[in-house]
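Obj.: predict assembly geometry.
Materials: sequence records (below).
Method: joint structure prediction, all chains together.
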Amino acid sequence: MDKKKLLKIILTALVTAAFLFLLFYYEQDKRKNGHALSILERSAIYAVVAVAMNMLTGFTGLFSLGQAGFMALGAYTVGILTIPLEARQNIYYISGMNETLASWHMPFIPAMIIGGLVAAVSAALIGALILKLKSDYLAIATLGFSEVIRAIIASPQFDRITNGSYGLKKIPRFDTIFIPVIISAICILLMVLLIRSSYGRAFKAIREDETAAEAMGINLFKHKELSFVISSFFTGIAGGMLAGYMGSIDSGTFRITLTYDILLIVVLGGLGSVTGSILGSFLVTAGREWLRFFDEPLFIGSWQVPLFRTGFRMVVFSLLLMLVVLFYRRGIMGDREFSWDMIFRFFTKRRKKVEISSQGGSHD
Amino acid sequence: MTKEVLRLDHCTMQFGGVVAVDDLSMDIHEHEIVALIGPNGAGKTTAFNFVTGVYEPTNGAVYFNEELIVSNRPQGKMKKLYNGTNRDFRKEVVSRTPDQITKLGIARTFQNIRLFKNLTVFDNVLTAMHMHLKANFFSSALHLNQHEERAMREKTVELLRMQDLLDVRNEIASSLPYGQQRHLEIARALATKPTLLLLDEPAAGMNPQETDELADFIVKTKETFDLTIFLIEHHMTLVMDISDRIYVLDFGKRIAHGTPDEIQNNDEVIKAYLGVELDVENQ
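Observations (raw structure tokens):
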């Protein structure tokens, strides 16, 4: 038994080391591996949003579609606070920057945490109003909230803060991919700890049966609000990282399609599975890129294969998604978590089958 | 006389124009097993629901350990619609949500079992202990309260052992056979450390042998956990076996009250259960 535990620890350490080594290897020649690094970076950021959304939808049973809005809050906070002072004049060239804000500047990490807090506070306010709504109605209300945030950001009245529809540029980008990857890992770890705590169990109880949860002394509003605020906090953090990853953002970045991307990741990975969400974010982000050859004209001999042109990859991608959802109705992981036991079982089952069939043979 | 645990004071529950429970008064004393019986649709579960905060009674008051916990008078559109008796019996309005009621020490089970279906047996009971968590949110979320967490787990194991559910602790709750699900629901209710336990038709769907076992189990649970039990049940043998006193409801009205013997020989009760046939026999 202990031997198995040791083996698991060694395997986990090996995989982590291999992943870190891969990142390190890619970092050596940034220009050559820029594409791969960019995919990994985006995946890591999306993984945080996906796990945060899963905590809310998969574990607490609250279906919210406000992710893009909370990411926008985080991203703009980071943008406004981290753009170098000397560059601000050029960016806010239309109507100038708000005097108070213009002198505020701080490094990325504190700005990112403030971004998370901004998202969390607005979630607390909005949650107090809408968390009484059930399922689809909550989704529509949060969707509306997300669009309101986007509209406010783009509105000319806020030009001096958000630079309106011109967006923010020259946000300092990450020097190394290790920053977003490590921050993501910490965020996900914190959420996993929460999900495994007594509060996490209360969240699951609410998902399973609100009436029964309430009868067990669980205050529905308090726990729903907690889950919503914490999920939004981490979504805001991820939004901040997205700003640091992209370098320039505008209100168009945070369209509803961004939320749908995250929803896709969560559903594909499996509602109620953290590892599923992580896996999903890497698969979906990378999948889009792997399919890029469908976008280029393909010749077999002198015959040009029809349909292979710009945009075709999204058709293939959508078809693949439909197939996955048809065959794995509950996502890749369902509501289970990845564990080494799963892998062990997979192999031992095979071996047992082989043993049984060989034994059956020798008996005769 | 022992201490009074629960008292319903002229409680009326009206849905729209329908009076589901009309002017129900009753009291339950410490260490008693009191049953509420009556034909289908008599308003028994409704009575449970306003005691546990799922509904607010339209009129009347509920006391727990001689403290007023729920009280209401016809308000809003009920001012016009109200057609129960003893209108405005209580002037003050006190309402509590189900979780607040549970925190006072009243736990319940449901008529149509409501387990956390996709959680394990162990987690079902462990979740019910969340209410008593002493650690604040951050120390719990960061797993800094290992000592408390361990204590909760030990208590869960203990509860499961008492209910003979320890062997199936890692099973998913919905995969258990029906009888065991009932036991699990009771175990989960006990995990909230109640002093008053409300059982809504615990023997529903059980065969005679299981029902006998359940009767023993309820009495034993009452003794071990020092409980008072308030029970709704259709199974007459079970009710007559274990109850100290019985209240009978028919069409929302309390028609009889007494010891099992008194109830069995009460004409009103027999009439309510058997309808007109009694008249035919009498003639």
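Conclusions so far: Residues 208-225 of chain B form the longest helix (18 residues).
To do: check interface contacts against the pulldown list.
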